[in-house]
Amino acid sequence: MSRLLIGDGRSGVRRFIVPAGFSAFTILLGVAFEQGATIESTPFRLAYIAAGIIVGFLASVLMQRQLELEHAFEEQARALRTAAERLKREEEQVRIAIEATGLYLWVWDLRTNDMEIAEELRRALGIHPTERITVEGYLHYVHPEDRERVRSTLDRLLEHGGRAQVEYRLQLPGGAERTIHATAMMQRNAAGELVRLIGALNDVTERRELEARLQQSQKMESIGTLAGGIAHDFNNLLTAMMGHGQFAMSALPPDSDVRPEVEAMLIAVDRARLLTRQLLAFSRRQILQPRLLDLNDVVRDIARLLHRIIGEDIRLELDLADAPLKVHADSGQLTQVLLNLATNARDAMPRGGLFQIRTTSETVTPSRALEMEINPGRYAVVQARDTGIGMNAGTMARIFDPYFTTKPVGRGTGLGLSMAYGIVRQSNGHIRVESEPDKGTSFFVMLPIAAGETD
Fold first, then answer.
1. Looking at residue 12, what is its pLDDT?
2. pLDDT of 365-409, one tens digit each?
3. Do the strands 441-448 and 377-386 form a parallel or antiparallel pair, or are they unpaired?
4. Residue 47 banded pLDDT, cuts 50, 70, 90
5. Cβ neighbour number for residue 88 with a 10 Å cutoff
6. Under 8 Å between Cβ of 297 and 326
7. What is the pTM of this model?
8. What is the mean pLDDT of residues 131-139?
């Protein structure tokens, strides 16, 4: 309640008590009309003018307030835009950093069983961006041999908590495989309830392949050192045995009953010396006599011999480069490499097929040269391809090991490919194999093109 005093100077002053919610101006108008005023009367006009002034003042105040609010709103909107742009830049920087590390982030919501994975991984797996994916759906892409290990890792994490990591292979739609190193940890809500698992997937395919090549190289080096030492010492013993045997043959009369026995011994010694030469070739300790030769000419010269080795059921096809491929190599040893590859191809095609020798050239970049343990530059390449039974990954990993063979007993010593490996490596080259079961095998022999020669 408020009090209001009204008077005209003649009739005295009247006191009013103004009810709450009524303005003094409203009461003033009421009193004026009560005293017989009309809208044309001077007091009312004065009140009307006063009301206009008040309304104008209030409108001015409101307009000023509106301008202040609009300005504050614009400032806030500008600050929000700046913050949004900064957040967008930071998100882009985080995305680039994550891509640089090869990491794919993932989240498994335990309440809905939904799994969120990075867009790059979705594309690699052929999953549509809007398609829902669950953990079981993701495990479908895990290699069957690794699937149970991944499940058990997740189960242990859910049961015991903490952090976990596991490595497995992902099978991509095109048939390729990628090796993934996954890490995970639990996340709880404010009530302490387990709500999700979060983690990162790291593609370590290239790293594991490089480690495997390094281990293979170290293994071959160790085996070569051992084989070379044994072959060298054994060859010295065989040389002495051969000398004594030949001396005994010269001392025996032609009709001696002992001569056949000595001859058999000399034949056995000669075979043993052949094995030691193969071991020395593998260990890169044999004496080579390199000279400048054209790789195409070497292939042409042994074509007739290759026909005899592979037999009539296998078709020989030569696809040689138009330009000469000049390399420094031992012609005899290089011929032996090609003959060993032809023998291996023949045994892989018992029912016949195609054996193709193709020559070409390629440039080895510094990064590839580091992987293959050769010098970068131009290389002449011989590809020996067959349409035989092929090999699995386990066989390919041991294909150049001495005495390793998948052939029946008596069909081979297991030294042919190891000998080829040693000869090529001693010639500063590289040999590799590509194969799949039932899809044939290709061996690639790479030798550096001679300095000053062009292809």
1. 46
2. 998 888 888 899 999 999 999 999 999 888 888 888 877 777 765
3. antiparallel
4. low
5. 10
6. no
7. 0.51
8. 88
Q: Report the distance separating Cα 231 and Cα 283, nearest Å.
A: 9
* Strand bridging mode 163-171 / 115-117: unpaired
What does the block give as tokens for 95?
Answer: 């995305």
Give the chain's domains with CATH numbers.
Answer: 102-203 (3.30.450.20), 209-282 (1.10.287.130), 291-448 (3.30.565.10)
Q: Beta 314-319 vs 353-364: how paired, if at all?
A: parallel
On the CB side of 148, CA atoms within 13 Å amount to 1
Q: Which of 387, 342, 382 is nearest to 358 (CA)?
A: 382
C-alpha span between 347 and 413 (Å, rounded): 13
Show the tokens assigned to 138.
């993701």
Per-residue pLDDT at 248 exceeds 90: no
Nearest alpha-carbon partner for 420 in 239, 311, 322, 282: 282
3-state secondary structure of 447: strand
Name the amino acid, one letter, at 71: H
Task: Please report which residue ranges of 183-311 form alpha helices under DSSP H.
Answer: 205-251, 259-282, 295-301, 303-310
Higher pLDDT, 307 or 218: 307
Q: Which residue has the tokens 């390094």?
A: 214
